[in-house]
Specification:
Shape: elongated
Strand order of the largest sheet: 9-8-10-11-7-12-13-14-15-16
Largest sheet: 10 strands, mixed
Number of helices: 16
């Protein structure tokens, strides 16, 4: 038997043997000591120890000797079983695992818990490493080499020899915790993942191609998850604690982050990450994805170039921000653009951009900067276009006023189920400004400011499409009038769950067509012929 096996064998039975010795000493004061020794020695051999009353049995000395001999033989058999089981391979080999961090955490020798060892090593690493010089580049070979050497040294100090695969797994997890976002790192590198949703430390879901899937990954505990959330928020100057349990933030690549912690999130901290593609999506890519047709794309390109005011509406995850980023490509290069967002996520495909971001209040409840404050300030920055990442409340009124006072070409997104619902949402948000305006005045502002509404929807198969392109034509009898230029008509769902449908023209030529043509953009009449379009 190897030294490790001997050590384990001794530690396994050290405590029961001591108990047997103590108990045997206590029985020497009783009338029949030899019988008591025989009964108590059998105790550690049994798999289940039950409390029973001891009975003094009168036996001869020869019988006691024989019982002891039999007991020793039984002990050798019983002791060999657990030692043999413990010395088996502690981790099963896997063929080409997709993610080493997703492998099952092994239980280590000697009864030491894997998570406890990882926590202990993590604490020692933080104490040894100057974290201000680390950065956050997981692929930095020099830093990885130094951390790996330190981990091996700490393992030697602990006196815990580990198989190569276990050591590699532990090292990768510790490096991911120190330099990155722990178990989320492989998901952030996976280009097929669009959303990462963490529901407490033990449940991680991702969205791939519009469909949610559960991942075989987890955090060690609530404290581990909180360390990752704190690392994200502190990098952008935000804080999250019991006094401020809600936070919006972003990653270095622009991915949007929202976190909710205890006591608001009852079952543990909840973390949502909306990833952005490394490749910048353009309108032609969306045409290839089937989100719209070529003639729809050409009209929208012309509308952006000719400074039409456009609102992109849709539900959560329908692709509003991606579509707005794609539209920004057609803003002329000589124009100055100011963007305003709660958490900066727009990635406009141009150079001359000023990006503004809101700021939450500090611990004293002071210093808050809202979107409305930023809209007012942006108008003093000589912008030619103002773009709002998401219109949420009273800033809607300030944006409409900007559109009506010479800042043509403004754009923004908002949440709505249909293009006509977007009118009502804008009207409601204007009322949230706190200015007591009559309903008619607000509707007149909307009718004269907004030219086009693009409605996006996400379907049951995860696909995203522009379902309506609507023109606002004015007001009649106090009601905002609008007309659909193009729309998507769903026909069926095939056997694979894919949504089938066609894009159609309503047969109405938009009123803004004359403005586009006066600026050199031709719109063929066949684009607006009623029926299916391509």
């Amino acid at each position: 038997m190897d030294p490790n096996g001997q050590h384990f064998f001794k530690s396994m039975f050290a405590k029961p043997a001591a108990e047997a010795t103590t108990q045997s000493q206590q029985t020497t004061t009783q009338e029949k000591p030899t019988a008591q020794v025989t009964v108590q020695i059998e105790t550690p051999v049994e798999s289940k120890i039950e409390e029973t009353s001891t009975t003094n049995i009168e036996v001869k000395k020869e019988d006691v000797v024989e019982a002891k001999t039999e007991t020793k033989i039984e002990l050798k058999v019983e002791q060999a079983k657990p030692a043999e089981k413990k010395l088996e391979s502690v981790i099963k080999p896997q063929e080409k695992p997709q993610n080493p961090l997703a492998q099952k955490k092994p239980a280590l020798r000697g009864g030491i818990n894997y998570k406890e060892l990882k926590k202990k090593l993590h604490t020692k690493l933080i104490a040894e490493i100057d974290t201000t010089k680390l950065g956050d580049d997981l692929q930095n070979k020099e830093v990885r080499t130094q951390i790996t050497s330190l981990i091996e040294a700490l393992l030697q100090e602990e006196g815990l020899p580990m198989p190569t695969n276990e050591k590699r797994l532990l090292t990768e997890e510790l490096i991911a915790d120190i330099l990155g976002l722990g178990p989320l790192e492989p998901l952030l590198r996976d280009s097929s993942v669009n959303d990462i949703l963490v529901n407490g430390p033990q449940k991680i879901y991702v969205e791939r191609k519009g469909v949610l899937e559960k991942e075989p990954l987890s955090f060690d505990d609530e404290a581990h998850l909180m360390r990752v959330i704190t690392r994200i928020t502190s990098a952008v100057g935000r804080r999250v604690d019991e006094s401020s349990p809600l936070v919006d933030a972003r990653l270095k690549d622009g991915s949007r982050v929202n976190a909710v912690i205890l006591p608001i999130s009852i079952d543990g901290a909840a973390l949502s990450i909306r990833k952005f593609s490394e490749k910048k999506i353009v309108i032609d890519d969306l045409v290839g994805f089937g989100a719209l047709t070529q003639c729809m794309a050409d009209i929208l390109k012309s509308a952006v170039t000719c400074r039409m005011n456009i609102v992109v509406s849709g539900g959560t995850g329908s692709g509003k921000t991606t579509f707005l980023n794609a539209l920004s490509r057609y803003i002329p290069d000589h124009e100055r653009v100011v963007t305003i967002e709660d958490a900066a996520e727009l990635q406009l495909q141009r150079d001359h951009v000023v990006r503004l971001e809101t700021r939450p209040p500090n611990l004293e409840g002071k210093g808050e900067i809202t979107q409305r404050d930023l809209v007012k300030n942006a108008l003093r920055m000589r912008p030619e276009r103002v773009i709002l990442g998401e219109i949420r409340s009273g800033e809607a009124l300030d944006l409409l006023q900007a559109m009506n006072t010479g800042h043509d070409g403004c754009m923004g997104t908002l949440h709505a189920n249909t293009s006509r619902d977007a009118f009502s949402r804008l009207e409601t948000m204007c009322l949230m400004s706190g200015i007591d305006l009559p309903q008619k005045a607000i509707r007149e502002q909307i009718a004269t400011a907004v030219n086009i509404i693009c409605q996006l929807n996400r379907f049951s198969d995860g696909s995203r499409r522009i379902t309506q392109i609507t023109e606002i034509t004015g007001m009649e009898n106090g009601i905002i009038t609008a007309q659909d230029i193009f729309f998507f008509e769903q026909k069926s769902v095939d056997e694979n769950g894919k949504v089938k449908g066609i894009f159609k023209a309503s047969g109405v030529r938009p009123k803004f067509a004359s403005k586009l043509e006066s600026m050199g953009h031709k719109l063929p009449n066949q684009w607006f012929t009623p029926g299916q379009i391509t």
